[in-house]
Amino acid sequence: MSLIIPEIYSGLVREKFLGRVKVMNLATNVGILKNTIVGSTVTFPKWKTLTDANVVTKGVQSPIDSLDQDSSQATIKMIDKIVRVFDIDDITMLGNAIQEAAAQQAIIFARKLDNDLIAEAQTTALKTATAGANAITANELNTALQNFGDDSDTDDIAGIIVNSLLDSSFYSMSEFVDGNKTYNSANGNGIVRNGMIGSFRGIPVFHSDKGTYDSTNNECTSLIIKKNALGFMEKTGIDIVEEREEKLHCSDIVGAYTYAVKLLDDAGVVLLKKTIA
């Protein structure tokens, strides 16, 4: 007796998964993994920047730039979570065991992907030191944004990721809560919805505790991520297989998720923390 229809269950996990990811929403899906093997590498598109415009000289051919790519490879990873559901529990327990299994698998997959995306983002060379280990100020955020120079339009920035320990810093920040400031839209700031605590200078601020705390130095790590700076590839869905154990009257629901992550723009992410290596 099967407990699930894998195609329907997979869609259920995917739906709940998308409701749990945070950093994935700030990253770019750059393609589907095809004909690949877990543990092998995949090349991400990472275009080199063209040189500046050339002043035209009569009778002289201008230099020609080729549109080349840097080598940008990432390792393909598979994660899984196996849940055993007993037939009697699915029938008699308060609540739906299948729904609960799908929800928890989705949360686990979402947290792992976000954690890996944050770890990849932290490989950036752009860094700004903060004075406090578990606090952040508006001036420090402004200094970090200066790493982008004049290429720091609000609409070009996907978001700011902080550890939840820094929430109180934002709630105490006039630049975050004072709606009278011309650059601040404070309507709803401090009300957490889908991990978003509000906006700073029009940039969405999200809190995530996955990979944003340095337990060695006991300090928070924050990230400012530009659009298209962080990328991921995945297979076309979360794989679900039900393995029956008839002698035990139960099903093992095997969920697997295959993906790869990569920093696509070396100048597209800024890291903020007290200890800068």
Task: Give structural notes.
The chain is of the alpha+beta class and 277 residues long. It contains 6 helices and 15 strands. It has helices at 6-18, 87-92, 97-121, 138-145, 167-171, 174-177, and strands at 28-32, 41-43, 73-75, 77-86, 126-129, 157-162, 196-200, 203-207, 213-214, 219-220, 222-226, 230-234, 239-245, 250-263, 269-273. 30% of the residues are buried. The model has no long low-confidence stretch (mean pLDDT 89).
Strand content: 25-35%
Q: Just name the CATH architecture of the largest domain.
A: 2-Layer Sandwich
Q: Kindly state the number of beta strands.
A: 15
For the biggest β-sheet, the strand order reads: 5-15-11-6-8-7
CATH fold-level name of the largest domain: Major capsid protein gp5 fold
State the CATH class of the largest domain. Alpha Beta
- Total helical segments: 6
Radius of gyration: 23 Å
User: In terms of structural class, how would the helical and strand content be classed?
Assistant: alpha+beta
Principal-axes geometry comes out as: globular
- Outline the biggest β-sheet: 6 strands, mixed
Uncertain segments: none
Task: List SSEs in N-to-C order.
Answer: HEEEEHHEHEHHEEEEEEEEE
User: How many structural domains can be distinguished in the coordinates?
Assistant: 2
Helix content: 10-25%
